[in-house]
Write a structure and sequence with these properties.
This protein is mainly alpha-helical and about 140 residues long. It has six helices and no strands. It is about 75% helix and about 0% strand. It is elongated.
């Protein structure tokens, strides 16, 4: 293999990784943008949707769960789903995303080397968030039916 071909393959692989990472950051920016509003698609959200429409990457399960899509769904599927929802459904889904994401983050912060009081406080917080997640899932299921 010549050097140009190797470099082209490396660029191709590296470029794909960058695009996938960019897709994840676009998804997060989109959901954060939607959370700032009442479900109406802002100009920023529309720009993000337009950019995501060009991506064929599969996105993380959390996003699929929030929008009631299969885990094999792509960014294009997500854009189609969001644009087909009512303002109320978009608002509910973006709220659910914020709750689910917080739950995901709190589970990662498991305080292994903490004092007994900190562990009790952590468990209490996790339980409150679990209740919130259950309520949010019910609201999401009702909204997206």
């Amino acid at each position: 293999m010549d050097l140009a071909r190797i470099l082209k393959q490396l660029y191709s692989l590296y470029g794909l990784k960058l695009k996938q990472k960019r897709s994840k950051s676009l998804l997060l920016a989109l959901l954060n943008s939607l959370a700032d509003f009442d479900g109406a698609l802002s100009e920023d959200a529309i720009e993000l949707l337009d950019e995501l429409k060009t991506r064929s990457h599969i996105f993380p399960p959390l996003y699929a769960d929030v929008f009631a899509l299969p885990h094999s769904a792509t960014c294009v599927d997500l854009v189609d789903r969001i644009t087909s929802l009512s303002q109320e459904q978009v608002a509910t889904a973006s709220y659910a995303f914020q709750i689910f994401r917080y739950y995901e983050q709190i589970l990662r912060a498991n305080p292994v080397d903490s004092s007994p009081q900190q562990k009790v406080a952590y468990e209490s917080q996790v339980e409150r968030v679990r209740v919130s997640v259950a309520r949010t899932k019910a609201a999401l299921d009702e909204s997206l039916g």
